[in-house]
Structures are given as C-alpha cells and as structure tokens.
C-alpha cells in the first residue's frame, strides 16, 4: 500500500522542537547526554521518556544524545542542558538554540545484534559500526554490547581485517616523505616496561624515521603517552608532529590528538571500564594506529609471564601469528619479540616514576635499571635489523653504541625540545614504604596486583603516583627492609593503596633462604 | 610479606569524605549517578576521575554510583547531587550528609568476564551477579555487557536453572492457601494478543486460583500490565494482591510492584534498549516470575509466524522444550500451546486499543474480535484441563460457556473493583487512517513493523496510542478504504509514525485479486 497519501496530507503543523542550549559543565566522557524538563513543551509534545535516544541539531551539525529527564527546577522549560561531549560536538555557544527529535533507528545496531546472535560481520557492517561510534551515535550501552559481542565470540580473521580497515578509514592518516618508517609496540600488561622513548631516541639518532604515536593507559597504571607527558608536551597536532619528525627523525606523542583511529580511543574507554581486552580488538587497535600513522616496519614486543597479560608461550605465539598475519595483509613488515614478563621492568610503575627510569637509562646514569636498558637495546636492535639499517646480528651492537656515546640522549633532548620543551617529572607528596616482614629472598612479584596497587595510589591520572620497587626477583632481603614505596598525590589515595596492600600480603612474597 | 605494618602505622588522618546530599531530580532509570564538583575537596583528595564508580553511604545504607564530574557552578563544593535512583535507594532527605569513597572491585564482574571469555558459570556466580544487579551495583555498561555475554553464547541448561533460581532468590515469593495455582504466559511478539485478562476471568469464574502478575512491554507496543492499567489499578503490593485473590480467585496486576524477580525488571530495561531477548534469559525471565508468584500449573502460548518473535515450528519446539524442562526442574507443571502468529490478534495494538478488544470479548459484544475470543477460549481450556478442572477434551466447552453466560464478565468486573475500581481506557487525541492504495485482498501484515508503527505513535507510554487494524489477512479491500488507523496522543508522535509508514509502504500489502 502507499501510505504516503495520508502522511503527505497531514495538516497538523510539526512542533518547533526548539530549545535554548545550556552548558551544564558535566563531564560524561564520550557519551552525549541532554537534560530536559519532563514537563517541557517539547518532551510533552514528543512523548520522550527516560533513556530515549534523541537527535539534536544546531548550526548544521547533528548528534545523538541520551535523554535524562529533569523533574525539579534545575533547568527551565525552554532549556536543554548538555554534557560537555554533546556541547563540544555540536560546537555550541551559550544561548544557541537547538532542535530535538526522536533518533531514527541506527542500521549498524542491527549488525551488532547479528553478531551477538552468532553471525560474522562483513566489511560494510564494521565500516558503519565504526563510523557511528566515531560520530557519537552509540550510547554507552551500545558500546558495551558491541565490545562484549566481539569478546564473547572471537573476531575471525576476515572480521579483524575489516575492523582494522574501518578504524583506519574513519580517522586521519599520516604520510611521510621517508619511504621507510619504523615503529614499535609493546602488547600489554608489564608494569614499567617503558622502552619506547629510549628506542625512538636510539634509532632516530641512527638516521631512521620513527614518528611514534602512543596511547594512554587502558587498564594499566601508565601508558607511554602518560609517561612521556611528564617529560615533554605530547598533545601535538598533525602539522606539529610532521615538523618534529622532519627535524629530528622521531617523536613520542599522544596518538589521540591527531585522530589516528579515533574509534580506538572511544572503544578503549569502555574496554577499560569493563576490563575487557580481547585478541581481535587488540590486533585491530594496535595495527589500525600503526597503519594510520604511516608505519612500514613494526617491531612488536610481547612480554610473557604468569602474571603478565600474555601468560604462556602458546598464547603469545597465537597472538604473534594474528598480529603478523594482519600486518602482512596491510603491507606492514612486522616482527615479534617475545620477552620475559615475569616481573615489572625498571624500578618505577606510574607515569613520573617510569619517566625517571627512562631518563636514567638515556643519561647512562649508574643507578639506571639494567633490565630496562637491556630490553630497549634488544628492541632497538630488532628495529635496526628489520629496517636493514644494520647488518643481521649487529643491531644490538649499534644500539648500545648510540646509547653509550650520548647520541641517543642528545637526540632525545632535541626531540623533547621540538615537541615543546623538556620538563622535569613531578615528585609525589605522599609516600609510604612496604617493608619485608622477614629475611629471605624475593620469590614473587605479582604484576597485576602491583599495577592495581599503583592505580589505587592514583596512577595514571595522578602523574607522580605509583609504586617504586626496591628489589627484583631473587634478591636477598632482610626483615624490615623496604621492598617498595607507594607514591601518591593525595592522602586518600595513599590510604586506599595501603589498604589494598594489607588485604593482599602476597603481592610481594619473601621466601625462606 | 606482611604489609600491614606500614598501613597500620599511617599517621595521615583519613579525609572525612562527607558531602551534603542534594536531590537533583534527574531520572536516569535504574542507574545511580552522583554529580560532584571536579574541584571539591573530596574529589581532589580522593583523586576521582570521570566515570569512576564510587561508594556512597548514608544512614546505614550504601550504594554504588557512577560519578559525573561538574566543572561549572551547578552545585557547590560541599554538595553531592544525586539522581533519583541513587536518592531513593539511599532513602535520603534534602540536606542529609553522605560519605563517599572508591568502590571496591565487584567480585561478580570477574564472573561476567569469565563468561565472556567462554566459561560457563556455576550457581554461586549467578547468585552474586543477580544480587549485585538488584542492589544497583552494576553500571549500565556492566548490565549491557552481562546481557550481551548471555546472548552471544547461549546459556546452557544448568546456567538457565542457576539464573532462574538466583532471580527467584533475590526477590519476594508469594505463597497461596490454594494447593493449585494456575498461570499462563504468552511468549513474545504478537501485537494485540491480549488473552490474559479474559483467561483469568474465565478460569477464576470457574473456581480456579489465578493470581496473574504481568510485565510491562519489553520491546513491544504493550505488555499485559500496560493494557490492564487502562482498565484498573495494577500497582498493588503483596497484601493487596492477596486480598484480591482471596476474594475473587484471580487478579491481573503488575509484577514489579511486589518485587517478584526484581532483577528481571532491571535486565529487561537494558534488553529493551539493546533490542536483545535471548532464549536462556527469556526462560529465566518468564519462569522466575511464575515460580516467585507461586504458580503450580502453567500454560505457555507461543505464537509462530514469519514476522512473530518465534518464526518457525522448529524454533518454537526448541523453546518449548527449554521452557518445559526448566519448569519441570522447579516442580512447575507446564504445557505449551503453539498458536498462529501470522498476523496481529484483535483490532487494537497499543494499551488502550487492546483494552477495548478485551472488554468487547468479555462483554460478548457483536464487534468483539473473533480471533481474540477464539484464542482466549483455547488457552482457558488448556488451563482448565492442565489443572484437572475439566475432563480431558472438555476445557474449551466449559470456557465458552463461562464467557457466553456472563460469568467471566461478572468475575472480571469484580476483580477490577477489588484491584481499586474499573475505569474507561483513554481515547487518542490525534488519528490518521492509512488507506488502501488500490483494490485487491490483504496479503501481508508485518507484525514487527506494525509494532514499530504503534511504538513510534507513542505506545506503550502514551496509553491511547497505537494502531487500529480494520482488515485481516485475506480480506477483500477497495482502493481508498482505511486499512488501519494510527492513534497518537501528541502531534509529534503521529508525525513520526506517519513518516515511518511512508518509508515502509509494505507494512500492509494489498495483492491483486
């Protein structure tokens, strides 16, 4: 039947649905939220109810927001109050008018449901899902459902390729003059494993191009971006990054600022809240950023250990296979280095504490953590060899030389200057040591719970917060000696962390000699 | 090691973390939300960041809420503003003080992650998940993730049993004096299939005990509770229900008011927003309510049709098997009736429109929809036979008699009076017919899109809204004749529904003769 006859003849004037926008100053992260009076003319004529998704329009832009209805006098009948995410996405100024209407059903949510019910998704579905995610059309409920669906039934190879491509497509892509652009990435979960700034400094000092874009922490107490931010500005736009890299051959910046795979940042927040990090999404997350960043050669570090993210050799090899296969599909030459993941790397866990370790290695200080230095040299060596910038088997020799003769340190300082100026990592205001309860040797350091301890102490948001380790596995300790120190910026956070330490006396275990 | 040494020696006084509670009047449905100034002393000393889950305490009660940080002047530094759900759960009065701290990690979320990653969950896990859900400890993200996890890898039989039991355990249970308590339930998705009030009236008039607790709509334009609410009060507490049932032998009330399987109401809201309704959750949802309501004999109606919820005979038989097997485990005698699901039942789709059909059948009006009458008699007959209240094969005869001689109608009126007084279903203010574009016979009525049309028109929240059908499958129609009428309470909703009808000209298809 042709229903257009009736609809077109409608004589009822459509309600204007126009409200005055008000900035409420509510930080809801990515989710756009609009607050409207339950009894405002628009709610009444439109019949909106709580948790409705509605379409907001202003000055040619439109977004979908979740409606929270207000019953009190917080806002007037003519107002619509917006969360920061909604306000900024619409580009509003106070007093601007917005129009509101029901949100049309999102086609891509049908694809999400298809996947939940056991179907694989094709390219076009991932493209429309990722597009809708980046455009802010998914509520937190939808994001959680999509992420869970991709974790509960692992993504197939074709799906990972499609998701990776979609994540690249919706963001910016960096192009470099150099034909050969190297990158490195560490896959998850080893506290203090902060090799990136050192590797960049070494390989850039040897003439390679390494424009490193890093993430903030997902579920860890610090990401490379969090650490680097305590040493130099990292929030550079694409032009600024280009300038730094043209001048110095390398950089260590935050990837989010240049919209490389912007979907990743949204998905990661929700993965973090759900503590989910499935392999397919991990591969798409890692590689979409590298592809968008214009890398041609990539070294991947996978730490393996009982309390690391990847717990066994078999799991590591599977993940490596997945990463290499997807990288190859996108024309990215990649190599995986499996490394020791049995304990944290360096001394510090937390942004500023890890930054101090990085600086000590680059300066070749006597107290520099030897394990961090060792790992940085291994990875820099692998990068040099993968990029054919050293003869096979000579990468580490070259890297060690660049580090020891000060070339890497000089390069690092120039990179920091180019990024906006070097600064000193902050120091914590509140500290407390955890003491060895008896003499013996240090038998266990639980990576996950060390990370949790550092997070309870405030990391990564509190930059100076975290855990400073004073002993390594196998070290002989005497009763009463500090095994580590908890650093915090606020007394409440120090108290939480210590409460956790009390409840978990086996984070660090001293065994009998 | 024993870290208690350090923690116990802490000399730092813990921050008081006390704020003045303010009722913000924000309806966020089940999710508890707290708004605090980003720069308030508590946020600063505790290091809370956006989307943190925090523990609120007041007067011996505690809840977990999602923190939204406020950057403007909406609230003062000494205040914490709460959503309605948070406010009510803490039982606050304006000016009360609350204390806030970081929420400890929820153990049950580990179980949710285990299920996402492919493990089955045992009894204790479902118990703790459902307990945390009912106590409001899950954010919307967590709820969406749990529901998706149970949809993406279907719940196993043991899991369905455990979930059902857990859902019964966390709520109230009704006990009846009668040894034999009958119930019926229709499984999903056939617009207008509102047999329940008629079946209750018939079997109660014949002396059976049928204390019917119904749900509101999940994804449909009306649930039985929504329909019944337009005829009589349905929001009765356990004592009131008992009084009605003792007096009349039957009732038709909303289940949510008596906390029968209260987890179901929370999960259903999220399932609705995600448009998910997987079999295992469906079985647990249906049967937990029946078990908690004290039913001993249960007839289940499963409509089967191309655009019904259950699309084919095989799917229906699988679902029937699942329902019967779980019912049996809990000592519930159940029977399934597979019914025709090819088109809507009766004329009306939407709360008040369906109520009119129900009343017409009970009053034996000439214009009563014969299909609704037929189905109600079939189901009442099945209930009578299952409960051995009629000889085998004689249930329908008995049911027809009670309907035709006015006993059922008299009983229904007495039930409505006992529930608080009968009322007249409201009429819509805005209507528009959809006309047959040409002559022929009605070949297709798309259940799902009829339901969507009724929802866009405002059902179930707008009680008078919905779709009124003027023709059945196979009816001969002439060009320009109204096939159905869209009813709405607001012009905006009428416009949306008509817009949808224009975009979907094949909701009702007229075929050549």
Automatic annotation (TrEMBL), chains A, B:
SUPFAM superfamilies: Nucleoside phosphorylase/phosphoribosyltransferase catalytic domain, Nucleoside phosphorylase/phosphoribosyltransferase N-terminal domain, Pyrimidine nucleoside phosphorylase C-terminal domain. One of its GO terms (molecular function) is 1,4-alpha-oligoglucan phosphorylase activity. GO terms for cellular component: cytosol. It comes from the Bacteria. The keyword Flavoprotein does not apply. Keywords: Glycosyltransferase, Transferase. It is an enzyme of class 2 (transferase). It catalyses: thymidine + phosphate = 2-deoxy-alpha-D-ribose 1-phosphate + thymine. Its EC number is 2.4.2.4. Residues 441-508 form the Pyrimidine nucleoside phosphorylase C-terminal domain. InterPro entries: Glycosyl_Trfase_fam3, Glycosyl_Trfase_fam3_N_dom, Glycosyl_Trfase_fam3_N_dom_sf, Nuc_phospho_transferase, PYNP-like_C_sf, PYNP_C, Pyrmidine_PPase_CS, Thym_Pase_Put. The keyword Transferase applies. GO terms for biological process: pyrimidine nucleobase metabolic process; pyrimidine nucleoside metabolic process. NCBIfam families: ARCH_P_rylase, PRK04350.1. Belongs to the thymidine/pyrimidine-nucleoside phosphorylase family. Type 2 subfamily. This is Putative thymidine phosphorylase. It comes from Methylocystis echinoides.
